[in-house]
Amino acid sequence: MTDYCLDTKKVVDYSVSKNKLVNKTIKCSTGKSCKDGACVKSSSGDEGAGLSCTDSDGGISTAIKGSISYKEMFATEPT
After folding, report:
1. Could you tell me the end-to-end alpha-carbon distance of the chain, in angstroms, rounded to an integer?
2. What pTM value is reported for the model?
3. Are 53 and 68 contacting, i.e. CB atoms less than 8 angstroms apart?
4. CA–CA dist 6, 52 (Å, integer)
5. d(Cα 14, Cα 1) in Å, to the nearest integer?
6. How many helices (H) and strands (E) does the chain have?
């Protein structure tokens, strides 16, 4: 199962508890909206609003090879 947006302010989150599949509908906190199954910071109207940027290793980490994706672009950190 994959998490998904119920609407712009709620995400349906799947997890496993006591060997059973469970789901919860979670309201996004203030300033966030649901996009692609996650609560993300709401756009403020600047250029690139509504686009996502992700970093597989959570930021600057020289011990872990990571990759980032932004818009339609995809890049991998050099080894």
Report:
1. 34
2. 0.52
3. yes
4. 19
5. 7
6. 0, 8
In terms of residue numbers, what domain contains 29? 1-42
Q: Which two tokens stand for residue 40?
A: 């993300």
pLDDT in tens, 9-59: 999 999 988 888 899 999 999 889 998 899 998 875 444 445 566 767 666
54 plus 74 within the same structural domain = yes
Q: Are residues 1 and 34 in the same domain?
A: yes
Instruction: State the total domains in the chain.
Output: 2
Q: Please, what sign has the CA dihedral across residues 44, 76, 36, 41?
A: negative
Residues 33 and 56 in one domain: no
Residue positions counted in the chain: 79
- At a CB cut-off of 8 Å and minimum separation 6, what does 44 contact? none
Residues 25 and 7 in one domain: yes
Q: What is the largest CA-CA distance in the chain?
A: 45
